[in-house]
Amino acid sequence: MLLTAVSRADSYVQFMTVLILFVFVLAITYLVTRWIAGYQKGKAGCGNLEIIETCRITPNKYIQIVRAGTKYLVIAVGKDEVHMLSELSESQLDLQKNTEGQIADFASILDKVKMLKEKDKG
């Protein structure tokens, strides 16, 4: 009887240890991912180059509008090559920020889901 009580307590301690280690690994993974994302975001913001819009033609080919300094270029991007198609003036572009076609961050998507669930309940 005493032996089974010790083994139950031992298995409980093992479970709690594994649970704590799992949460610790998740926390470290989250922090490292955030750090790497911030590092890459800082590297990507060069200032003189910006991808304005991308349109997928085939799985490996895209047409992009790129701002290089003060010029706007239309380029074709393939798997192993990049070709300039045209140069555009700023007046030829519609540079309004359209957030419907863009990918939103996770927090805003989660808020929308919560609002929809609250509407369904109420």
From TrEMBL:
Is Protease set as a keyword in this record?
Answer: no
- State any GO BP term from the record: bacterial-type flagellum organization
Name the principal localization, coarsely classed. membrane
TM segment ranges: 12-33
Q: Cross-referenced InterPro entries, in alphabetical order?
A: Flagellar_biosynth_FliO (IPR022781)
Q: Name one GO cellular component term.
A: membrane
* Keywords linked to the UniProt accession: Cell membrane, Membrane, Transmembrane, Transmembrane helix
Out of the domains of life, which is the source? Bacteria
Where is the protein localized?
Answer: Cell membrane
| Full protein name | Flagellar protein FliO/FliZ
Q: What is the lineage of its organism?
A: Bacteria, Bacillati, Bacillota, Clostridia, Lachnospirales
